[in-house]
From TrEMBL:
<dbReference type="GO" id="GO:0016829">
    <property type="term" value="F:lyase activity"/>
</dbReference>
<dbReference type="GO" id="GO:0046872">
    <property type="term" value="F:metal ion binding"/>
</dbReference>
<dbReference type="GO" id="GO:0032324">
    <property type="term" value="P:molybdopterin cofactor biosynthetic process"/>
</dbReference>
<dbReference type="InterPro" id="IPR013785">
    <property type="entry name" value="Aldolase_TIM"/>
</dbReference>
<keyword id="KW-0408">Iron</keyword>
<keyword id="KW-0004">4Fe-4S</keyword>
<protein>
    <recommendedName>
        <fullName>FeMo cofactor biosynthesis protein NifB</fullName>
    </recommendedName>
</protein>
<comment type="similarity">
    <text>Belongs to the radical SAM superfamily. NifB family.</text>
</comment>
<dbReference type="InterPro" id="IPR006638">
    <property type="entry name" value="Elp3/MiaA/NifB-like_rSAM"/>
</dbReference>
<keyword id="KW-0949">S-adenosyl-L-methionine</keyword>
<keyword id="KW-0411">Iron-sulfur</keyword>
<dbReference type="Pfam" id="PF02579">
    <property type="entry name" value="Nitro_FeMo-Co"/>
</dbReference>
<dbReference type="InterPro" id="IPR036105">
    <property type="entry name" value="DiNase_FeMo-co_biosyn_sf"/>
</dbReference>
<keyword id="KW-0535">Nitrogen fixation</keyword>
<keyword id="KW-0456">Lyase</keyword>
<keyword id="KW-0479">Metal-binding</keyword>
<dbReference type="InterPro" id="IPR003731">
    <property type="entry name" value="Di-Nase_FeMo-co_biosynth"/>
</dbReference>
Length: 423
């Protein structure tokens, strides 16, 4: 009899290519990009996650909602009998998007009880969800721990957002480290396998990785994966090159005296599909097998001139409302939005103004308005292009990832204060 909800899965680590080198060429994995938001800012990461060509963590060519993600897994299981692992690794943090993450995990678990489930997270919001992860038989969790001393961490993280408050500097680093420790200890108490990822940043934490290994081993971590920095344009660490390969080899040998080391990491995308090292994307599958949903009756759109979806919700003084007809969507009317400056009440008022609309299409939106409108039953979709073309796509296939576009307009502020928009 298993002694914990996850013991059966833990014993099956040999089917997980990220945890067993011999499994990498025998079993496939898929990452489901259902978690776009993040609750920390790292100096090596930007928020422009939409990319077809780059191969690195935090990048995807599209997003899926939980229902789409589960149907994609259904298709993959039919096509690839050797698929053994379903993971959620972004493009943001799974637990900055707990509803989407847990809904997806529940759906996959109920439909495919044989699959291994895993998540990769920064750990900040993880402790509150350990119990449910164990109940869902999530067997493997990866936590990115780049520092175990706040004076090192503050050089990596300009801010973290926790319990609706933004913290910066050493306070932010200390909080993150404390939460990571709490999460890993709790995960091990539930019997889950824990892998620690550590980004090795020359001149920042490269001489600190051994200490990370020692400390996380004391917390109970099972394996560590030192990952060389991937310089990303537009970030604070863009000018820092990757660590020397010889240094990385020596570092892995040194750290292996403390914890088992994963040495076959390929820095997977958030939408990775296939064997480790393959360039497949789960979004390629959705292009061929679109997940159809019922077209909504009414849709609100933010637009500057009535032709394009090209206006951020926070800047919109009015929305265009369209109604579904027999042959497609037809324009119904314009509706004024509440004046700026009302904080969250502004978005509650808007939710009443467009309460008969199931969907809002906009070129950009902050976390607060998206959450408040979502709580009112209005799905906020970041999109772009000609209104009529997008509406035609929705009429034919419903609101799928094909109509979504990345929002980049808040880039500098998103990487700065962390206070969010619309308040």
């Amino acid at each position: 009899m298993p002694t914990s909800p996850c013991e059966e899965c833990v014993m099956d680590t040999a089917r997980h290519p990220c945890f067993d080198d011999e499994a990498r060429s025998r079993y496939r994995r898929v990452h489901l990009p259902v978690a776009p938001r993040c609750n920390i800012q790292c100096h090596y990461c930007n928020r422009k996650f939409d990319c077809v060509n780059e191969s690195r963590p935090g990048v995807t060519s599209g997003l899926l909602d939980p229902d789409e993600a589960c149907e994609v897994v259904d298709l993959l299981k039919e096509r690839f009998p050797d698929l053994t692992v379903v993971g959620i690794a972004g493009p943001g943090d799974p637990f900055a998007n707990p509803d989407e993450t847990l809904s997806t995990l529940r759906g996959v678990r109920s439909r495919h009880p044989d699959l291994l489930l895993c998540v990769a997270t920064n750990g900040l919001a993880l402790p509150e969800y350990v119990e449910e992860l164990a109940d869902l038989r999530v067997s493997h969790v990866t936590v990115t721990v780049n520092a175990v001393h706040p004076e090192v961490g503050e050089r990596i993280y300009p801010w973290v957002r926790y319990e609706r408050r933004v913290r910066g500097g050493r306070e932010a680093a200390r909080l993150l480290i404390d939460r990571q420790q709490e999460a890993i200890v709790s995960l091990k108490a539930k019997g889950l396998v824990v892998k620690v990822n550590t980004i090795v940043i020359p001149g920042v934490n490269d001489t600190h990785v051994r200490e990370v290994a020692k400390e996380t081993a004391a917390w109970g971590a099972d394996i560590i994966n030192p990952i060389p920095l991937y310089p990303v344009e537009g970030t604070r660490f863009a000018h820092i090159g990757e660590p020397d390969p010889r240094f990385m080899s020596e570092l892995r040998r040194d750290v292996a005296r403390i914890l088992p080391v994963m040495s076959h990491c390929v820095r997977c995308r958030a939408d990775a599909l296939g064997f480790l090292g393959e360039e497949g994307s789960v979004m390629d599958l959705t292009k061929d097998h679109r997940v159809e949903t019922r077209p909504p009756e009414r849709i609100a759109v933010t637009t500057m001139e009535g032709m394009l979806i090209n206006q951020h919700l926070g800047e919109a003084e009015e929305v265009y409302v369209y109604e579904r007809g027999d042959q497609g969507y037809v324009f119904l009317e314009r509706r004024e939005t509440p004046e700026r400056g009302g904080g969250e009440e502004r978005w509650r008022l808007l939710s009443r103004i467009i309460g008969d609309c199931e969907v809002l299409l906009t070129s950009g939106v902050g976390g607060n308005p998206s959450r408040i409108l979502g709580e009112a039953g209005i799905s906020v979709v970041v999109s772009g292009g000609l209104i009529q073309e997008v509406l035609d796509e929705v009429f034919r296939h419903g609101v799928t990832s094909r109509v979504e576009r990345p929002f980049w307009g808040c880039g500098p502020s998103c990487a700065g204060s962390g206070t969010g928009c619309g308040v």
